[in-house]
Each structure stands twice: as C-alpha cells, then as structure tokens.
Amino acid sequence: MTAVADPVQSSRAWRLRLAATPYALLLPALLALAAVSLYPIFYGVRASFHKYRYGLDMGSAGKQNYTDIYHDPVFWQAMKTTAKFVVIAVPIETLLGLLLALLVARELRFASWIRVALILPMTIAPVVVGVIWRLIYASDIGIVNPLFSHLGLGTPDVLAHYHGAFFGLVVLDTWEWTPLLFLIILAGLHSIPQDPLEAAQVDGATRLQTFFHHTLPLLMPVLLVAVTLRTIDAVGTFDQIFVLTGGGPGTSTQLISIYSYNTAFQFTQYGQAMAMLVTLLAFLLLLMIAAVQFIRRNSRAAA
Amino acid sequence: MSDTPVTTADPFERPLTRREVIKRGAVGTVIVFGSTIAFAPKRAAAASTASSITIGTFQDNALSPIRDYFNGLFTKETGIKVRYHETSYNAWYQNAKNDGLNKTGAYDIYIMDDNWVPEFAAGHIIQSLDKLGFKVNPDILPKGVEQGLWPPKHGAKMKAFANAKPELYAIVNIDDVEILYYNKEYFPHAPQTWDDIYRVGKAKFKPKKLYGWSARGVKGNPIVQTYLPLMSSYGANFVNADWTPGFAGPAGVAALERLFSFIPFMPPGVAEFDTSQEVPVLLQGKCTALTEYTGTVHVIDDPKQSKVVGKINTAATPKQERHGPAIGTFICGVASGSKNPQGAIQYLEWFTSSRIQKQFARRGGSAAVTGSALHDPVAVKKYRWLPAIADAVNTSIPKPRTPDEPKMEDILGTALNEALIEAISKKQGYHAIAQKHLSSAATQITKYLKQQGGYF
Fold first, then answer.
1. Which of A9, A83, B132, B234 is most buried, with most CB under 10 Å away?
2. Which pairs from B437-441 meet CB under 8 Å and 24+ separation?
3. What ipTM is given for this predicted complex?
4. Residue B101 in contact with partner chain A when CB distance is under 8 A
5. B218 contact partners, CB below 8 Å, separation of at least 6
6. Contacts A248 to B, Cβ<8 Å
7. Residue B7's pLDDT is what?
C-alpha cells in the first residue's frame, strides 16, 4: 500500500524549499567572503589581544596591548602626523583635481592628450614614485638643491628637516594622487545635466555664479565620494614614505602605517601593531559613518 | 551564409539548468584544486635530501663569493648539492622566521644578521649547534663566535636566561664590523683618536670641495651605527649589566658632542645620509675619513666607483678612552625543521675551516672569520684591509643581546637624528642638546623594557 502525501504539507514544504533556495545558493559565496574578507579582520582583532615574544604567540594579553599603545607617545604622534598629512594633502589634491577637471572638461584642442599626461603619475607604482622623489630631493644628487641655489634661495636639504620632509611628502602625494581626483571629478562633470547650466546662462548668470550655484552643488555627491575614497587611501600611505624618508627625520613623516609596520616587523610586537591598526580602523569607521551621513543628507537636500 | 536560427539547444545561448551549473562548477573546482595538487610535488621536491642542503639568505654583495664560488666548491669536494635562495633583507627575515616557527623543512641553513640570533635562538627557530655536534674551529676570532651564543657570554642578560649556560646557536660566516676609512693624503698614519680626526678634518676642510668627516645621519640604525663606535670609545655602554641605558651619562654625551663638533666640516644634508650617500663623498675624494662596515672595502679600489683608488686605508675605529668598533656579523644557523642537519653542519664546518677561509679572504678580500685568513700574507698583499678587520673584530663591542634590540635601536636612532638636526640648526649648545635627547632616549628605552618585562 502506498502512502498518499498530504497536499497541504507538501505545498508548505515546497514553499519552504523555494524560499530557502536563494540562501542556499548564496551560502558558498558568503562562506568565501567570510574566509577571504572577514576572517583576516577577525584574526587581526584576535591578535591585538595576544602577546607575541620571540616570534611566538604567548597567549592572551587581555587589553594590555591597547593600554600600552594608549600610553605610547610615539603612537599618538604618528596618529597626529597621519591626521595632519590627510588634512593637508587631500584638500590640495581635491582642489587641484577640480581645477584640472574644469579645465579639461572644456573642448580644448589637445584635451585628450592633456588627460593622458595628467593621469600618468597615478599609473606609476608607489615605490617607484618614492624612488623618483627621493632622487629629486636628495641633497647630494637631487635637483631641488641646485635649483634653489641657482635662484639664490640657499639649499633647502628637503629631507634633512622636519618641515621640509613633511611638505616634500605632501608634494609627492599631490603629484601622484591629484590625477585620481581629477578623473573622478571629470566623470562627475560629464554626468551633470546641462539644462540648469544653460538656463542659468540664459538668465544672465556669470561663469562664477553658474559654477558656485549650479555646477558645484550638482557635483557635490561625486566630490564627497572622491574625497572619502582618497582619505581612506591617504591614511594608509606607506610605500612612498618607506622609500622617501623611512618616517624621518625624527618622527616628522612617521604615519601610523609606518609605525605599525615597524612595530610588527622590526620590533616583532604583532599584538601591539594590531592594536594600533584596530584603533585606527575604529577612527576610520567613525569618519566614514559621518561621511556617509553627510553624503546622504546632501543628496536629499539636492533632491 | 546560413539563415538557420540558433536554437535553444545551443549550449552557449540557452540558460543553464541548475544541474548543469552544479556539474560545471564541480568540474571547475576539480580543475583548480587538481592543478594546485599537481604542482605540490614540485614544492616537496625542493626540500633537501641527504645529498643536498638548502641555504636561505638575504641579498648582499659580501655573500656573492659564497653563492658564485664556494657553494660549488663544497659540492665538488663533498658531493652534497647546495641550493641557494636569496631575497631582500626584510623579506628574508620574515621568511626565515615563519619557516623556523612552522618547521617546514624548506631550508637547512639560514644566513642571518647577528641581531636576529637572540629571537631565533630563544624562539627555537634555529637549533643549538652544540647539540648538533658542531665543532668550532679555534682559529675563528672569539668575538665573532660570541655573536652566535645564546644567552650571551658577556654583558646584560635577560632574567629568564640569566643562569642558562651559553650555547652556540649560530656560527659567523662574514666578520662584518665597522672600520675607519681614511684618505692617506691627509692622514699619513692611521689616526689613533677622534681628536686626531677632528684636528685634521678642521685643518683640511674646504667648503664644498673637501669635508673633514662624513657620517650616516638618517634616523634609526644608520645614525646608531655612526654613534656606537664613538660612544663605546668614550667609555659608555648602550646598556649596563642591569639593562639601564648607559649612553646618557657624561661619556655618552661627550661622544655625541664629538660627533656634533664635526658638523661645520660635514656635508650639508648629512642628517638624511645613509651609506649610499655617505660613501660616495669618500670615493669622490671629498672627504678625509669616515667609519663604515666592511662592505665598502670592495669599492674603494674600483676605478668605476672611486676617484681615490689606492689612497684609502683602513684601521680599527679610533679609540678615546678605549676601542669600540661596532660589530654586525653575518651568521649562520641551522633551521629548526632542517631535513638534513648533518649536511648543514658539514657545510658550516667546511666553510669556517681555516683552509676555506683563507681562500675566502684571497677571493676579493672578503671579511673572513679566522685569524689566519685575515693575516694571510698572500691575501693581505692584495687586500690591505684584512688586518684592520681583524683588529676591529678583536676590539669590537657588541650591541645588547636581546630580541628587543631593534626597538631600543629605533628609539636611540630617532633621538640621535633629532639631536643632530637640532645641533645643525642651532650651531651651538651641543652639550645641552646631546644631554636632552640622550636622556629622553634612555627614559623611553627603560619604559619600553619595563613594559616588555624580563629585564629588571
């Protein structure tokens, strides 16, 4: 005798299966994501609560690593230097990127060539950029000292002074990353609807008025995204500094990336290094949440 | 041209069924994993066998003769094949550490910087050579041998190892040490004291044409290497036997003041100088003297790099109260996971034997590790710097032997760099500047060691 399936139960099971299928299909991707993306973060956070000695994991250190870095003046100095670097470099790059984008967005004769030339620095590997600028600034074989000397300004010995090295780094970063902002802003400019701008011109608005009252507000969401991305990237600047100054003179160019690298790989304090990076991540998350809120509010206002 | 419409039977056009997705996914997975498994035996084959050893190292010109000649000679004499893997310094430090901690067996011998020994020995990343039955050639200079002991024979010891008997964990293979390079046009004889160098430097200095002294001033290890021979010769210690920093006292301050006294006669921008900037000043004939490690001996007579061929002589770094060259040897340990430790021991005993060391010294004037090689008349006739290397090693003073030495060096190196920059900018008040920065470094180091534990 064969059993007859209950049609109600069968239908419910079918619906359940149907509802579960997408999640089941997503599961491998989620597991892969967890393995490659979330696990390293989890492992890093775990390491920040462990003590390492002689290259070995000596077990839990509780919150000691966080206490140690909280009382480490060099850590706070590195955080301060990182903030100073970002606050100076990113606005300069944004402003220059905006100006260049406005210039190139116009139908100039050699616009495409200018665009290619402008994005070249961004395509060079950061380590190579560091080497190039090291050669430019070097007090013995560089070109900055002879140039300044020729102009009667003395020899600045850029990398031998705190401010010189720091601003030398800002100049390098500006040279390398302005093109990124330029590209994003240029794309944003091309996507702006032309009707409001033409209407403003018909109404007799000057170019400046059109820019400040129409172009800039319409461009603002793109600008904010560009600045946010660049800020995250600038906080992690490493290669160029590693090659250019190694964080010196003194601690004048020691960003948190350099200090945490040294803490991990020179001083073999992996736990402390991870505590530094987790702290930095927390700061960055707060900053990003604020930025996203700002972008959302701005988009709503624009709408 | 065919007008036949593409039917849904065409596998590239119709949507895939769930069954097909799973089947193709499975095939893809098998291909990906299968290919990685297929490559695995090659990796396993790279590990050593009884008739081969694998050496891992950082790239350095001083090691080139080993790579290019001596490994082949060892194979010829013993039948044991040598695999030699080079990478950059930082990458090799991490590779070696990971390899030793995980006992992968990929390497038999690590060539290391001597300041890795405390960490690698305490962390059992390398094996005790004593326990492996390594026989030390008595001809090897004792100061070089001591660099491979853990815990150290002399000086401050960490509490956990205070009563442990020193064991040999690594054997020196390049006796790298800081020596004085001086231009004999300005120094008819090797200067004996720092005061001698100061007098000549001051007298001979011609702005932009001839500097009295050149130095590595960049933060971290470079400026520490500049300061150490001065500090030691003035009678100060990096750390005292109880781990208190010893450089902030009168002797250490006087040594730094002596360095500052050279400022008027040094090249501008010296605060950013590392070896690659310091040495060319000497080779261009623009500097009377400087201190550097032994790697520079290979370029002083190279006409492609030097305008002062035959004019640069060498000596142990000058003394003031005592001699104090800084020692920084290259040193070999046997990996914890070595597949052929006896082959590794055979190689190390062979390479550090007096016979091979003599050949090593004769091939390019390398910094051999045995006394007989460094004083070998045939080698010395061709390479005049070899006895200076022996003198410097014999009078050298090692850095603190602890895994925390890099951090201590970073703190001191940052403070010294800041002090140098301040002294260059103020051009006076050297004593107060030296005192302030050295005291600050001493406080930071003490705080760090207390934080780490195991010292006080």
1. B234
2. B437/B256, B438/B247, B438/B248, B438/B252, B438/B253, B438/B256, B439/B248, B440/B415, B441/B245, B441/B247, B441/B248, B441/B411, B441/B412, B441/B414, B441/B415, B441/B416
3. 0.85
4. yes
5. A246, A248, A249, B271, B272, B273, B274, B417
6. 218-220, 272, 414, 417
7. 43
